[in-house]
Each structure stands twice: as C-alpha cells, then as structure tokens.
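New to this. Explain these tokens.
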Amino acid sequence: MDQKQYAEVLIDGKIFTLGGTESEAYLRRVAAYINEKITLMKKQEGFTKQGTEYQSIMIELNIADDYFKEQERADRLAEQKASLEKETYSLKHELITTQMKLDELKKELEVLKKKQVAT
C-alpha cells in the first residue's frame, strides 16, 4: 500500500492540508488548478455578488466542463493513435510485399543475365 502524502496548500486565501497517496507535488498542482479556477470565476462580473452555493456550483461546473473536454480530447487522441497504428501496420505489410517482389525481380534479372552470357 502506498504511503500517504500530505501538503499544506492555499486555496481561495485559506490554508488546507491535503492528503493522498499521490506525491506532494501532485497535491499542490491540483490545489493550484482549483485556486486558478476560483480566481478566474471571481474575475467575472457579478460572480461575487451571488450566494456561496451558486458560486460553488459554477466553479464545479467549470471544473466538470474542463474534465469532459479533456476526456473528449483523450478519446480523439486514442482514436487517432489506433488509426495511425493501423496505417503503420498496413504500410509495413506493403513494404514487406514490395521487398519480396523486388527480391523476385532481382532473381529473374540474374537468371536473364546468366542466359544472355551463356548465349
């Protein structure tokens, strides 16, 4: 079992102690992301005039939006990777087939040269 790591982080002007099996650097990176989202939302006109529940929901929705967009991006990249692997396999097959044809033609050429020398 992984050892639990702890990190004190600053989120929205408050210090929190985060704990998890991830590295301290990772915990700090997650906290920085959350803090950045909060800061960006607070810069939007009228956001801070809303109730805390509304503010929390809007921050959560923005984080969820980021998550789903990245998930779609990851899915597209996985599809692209699969397509490129398939194309690579096809090109390798074509290369092997072409090499075999070249080898056959070289043998034929050698046979024809020997016949020509013999005559």
